[in-house]
Prior knowledge:
Layout: E1 7-14, E2 21-25, E3 29-34, E4 39-45, E5 52-58, E6 65-69, E7 73-78, E8 83-88, E9 97-101, E10 106-113
Antiparallel strand pairs: 1-6, 1-10, 2-3, 2-9, 3-4, 4-5, 6-7, 7-8
Amino acid sequence: SIERGSFSLEFFAENLKEQSVSFDFGEVLKINYQKEEKILQMKRKRWSESGYDEKQISLSELEQIRVFLDQSTAEIFVNHGEKVFTCKAFFDSNTEIKVTTNETIKIKTWLIKE
């Protein structure tokens, strides 16, 4: 098992064109792309109260996404850095990543233990 504060994670997903897709990182960070609306939404769990803070952008196409996480920070690079999000995100022992899509995509993850 991984103890709080003892890891960093890099997550890379590609072959995302022409589909809607969502990623949920430990129920703390959620990224959702809706192909029909051409909207990329990021939700980050609030740490001082319940609920999520949300940001969304218009994005004509999602090709790939790279996410860097540690115990307190998330950095998200969309389409080779065309769009970038950085936020505080406090992760606990839930290191589960859920991916929802109707098509085949390619995912790579790297877990870096300190």
